[in-house]
Specification:
Elements (H helix, E strand, L loop, with lengths): L8 E2 L5 E2 L2 H37 L5 H16 L3 H16 L8 H21 L5 H29 L8 H12 L2 H7 L39 E3 L1 E3 L2 E4 L9 H14 L9 E4 L19 E5 L5 E4 L4 H6 L10 E4 L3
Amino acid sequence: MARGECGVQLQPRGKWICSYKKITLVVCFFNIAISLCCIRFLYGSLYIYSGSIARNIVVYRSDQIWKMEESYEIRKAYKPVELVKWVKAFEGEFSSENVAVELPQHLKQKIIDEVLLRLGSLNSSSTNISHSQGIAKQREAVENWRKEKLKEVKLALVRGISNSTISNEEAGMLVKALESGWAVLSEEIGLWMPVEVANKEHDDKPEGIHELEEEVLPGRPLPPECNAELHSDYDGTAVRWGLTHHKDSAADCCQACLDQAKRAKEGEKKCNIWVYCPSEYGCHSPDIYQHKHQECWLKYAENPKLNFKDRYPEWYRNSQPSAPVIVPWVSGVVRA
């Protein structure tokens, strides 16, 4: 057997067998070739990506840039800064008012009891005053109670005082309800007070124009023949159900009663009582129905009698936990 000089072994049949050194060199050259191909591929991808980004860049001329800057300055100069400030102020004001705060039922009942107690003490001390003066005093008494209660609860929260009747969490809810949600809460508990309208005297006031009442209802004025009574609910047989009979105002409801009495055929009951719900949150009634805003009930009674007037009595509220303090209905008896 003979050996060559290059480290390969010559077999008898003329075959050459490579050594380990040659195999290692071949593998190294192969790996280098693969690495160069990978590097070339990555470099080509990077070039294509950078080229696509460069193609998407828009280059503006100097005159175009100048026009854009001029347009921005014009828009900035004509921006209604004061108007925007007023709008933001109004948005903040409206967002902080009339916010509905859901109170637990026992807190609502506590508020109703305290307001009723304040109004009861006021009525016992108020004698020989007109109806409008009485309403003004009631409104003032309720507002004073709200301020006193708000101060009391805030002071308790600051001092970290809590008792068995109300927790700190409920105290925070009560503060929100008495501040930002008082209008909604007063409607929910039935404490509906007519808006006070200030009538200023003017020298050019036409003669024969009477003073406006302190208590006014939304909509057009009620004619005298309607005999409207605020916070009152008359009994009677319904000749038109209010659940499906809505009117825009109390005056329209009264007019519907007068029209029904004129159109009624012989033998039909003629409307002589109208009952209207002016509250946006609905009106309470001891039946199973939910009475909504602008319900107009047309009734007949030979001898009209009041169901409730001004405030619901304590015995009634004990039997009807959902009943508010103040009667929310407006009604009147018309004479044919």
